[in-house]
Amino acid sequence: MIFSDDFLNILGAWQKGWKEDQAVRLQLAEKLKSAVKTIPDEFKQINQSCYRKRFLHHGELFEIIMVDEKYEGLTSWTIFQKYAENFKGLQKPDAVSAAIFEHVPEEHEVILNISALWQSKPFICAAEKYKENNGENSSAIFHFKASQGEVILSAPLKGSEIVALTGASSPFDELCDKADIPENERDEYFKKLIDIEQYPEILKYTSKEGTQRVIQNTIKLMEKKIEEAKQSTEKST
Q1: DSSP bridge pairs for 113
Q2: Dist CA 151 CA 135 (whole Å)
Q3: Which site in 7, 40, 204, 219 is 20 to 30 Å from 92, CA atoms measured?
C-alpha cells in the first residue's frame, strides 16, 4: 500500500503539532523524512510560491537579515498568504516582529505537498480506512485536510524573501516625525509601547515594498555599526 498506516500515523503526528517544543519537532521531522521515501514524487512537488509566518526575535536577526539564510530543518509552509498572515496572531511579547516569508521552492526542498494528497483518491481512501480503524492520529489528519494549504519544506529563512512585517501605520510615523525619532529607531520604540500595553494604533502588516525598505535600512545600519566597531578595534591596537 502506498499510504500505509505508519505513514498516516507520522503525518497525523506532524499535523497535530509539538506545542513549540523544538526537540519534538526535530524528532517528527526525522520520522517524516523517512516515511515519505516511498511516496510518489507527484506528492513532493509544488509549482507556486509558499508562505511562512515566523515571529522574529533578538539574536537571530543577523543570520536572517545579514547572512540571508537561517536553516531550521523541516517546517510547514502554506500556499495561502492570508492563512500565513492570520496564523497565531500578529504579535508575541518576546518578539520584535512577525514576518511573512515568500519562497518559491526548488525541487529538492519539497518534502511533502499535503494539499496534493487530498486531491488523490488512493490517499483519501487510505485516510478514511485509517479513520474507520481508529487510527491514532486520524483526528488531526481530518481536522485540517487541505484547508491549510500546507506544504512541508526543507528551506531556509531569507531576509530578502520577507514580504510583510507587523509594524505601525502612518499615525505612529507622524508621532515619530514630530518627536524627531529616526526611522531606524522606531521599531524599538513601537515595541516598548506594546510591552506596556499602550497601543498607538492597531498592528498591521507592512507592504512588500515597505518591508524591503526596512530590511535594506537595517542592513545599512548594521554594516555601519560593524564598520565602526572594526575601526574602534583598530585604533585601540
Answers
A1: 151
A2: 22
A3: 219
Q: Which of 162, 194, 221 is the last residue of a domain?
A: 162
Alpha carbons 11 and 119: distance in angstroms, whole number: 16
The 10s digit of each residue's pLDDT in 84-138 is 998 887 777 788 888 999 999 999 999 999 999 999 999 999 999 999 999 999 9
Q: Count of CB atoms within 10 A of residue 76's CB?
A: 21
Task: List the alpha helices (DSSP H) in the chain.
Answer: 5-16, 22-35, 61, 81-86, 114-117, 121-132, 138-144, 170-178, 186-195, 208-236
- Cell of residue 170, nine digits: 502612518
Entry field: residues in the chain: 237
Query: Domain check: are 138 and 38 in the same one?
Result: yes
Structural domain count, the chain: 2
Residue 164 pairs with which residues in a beta bridge?
A: 100
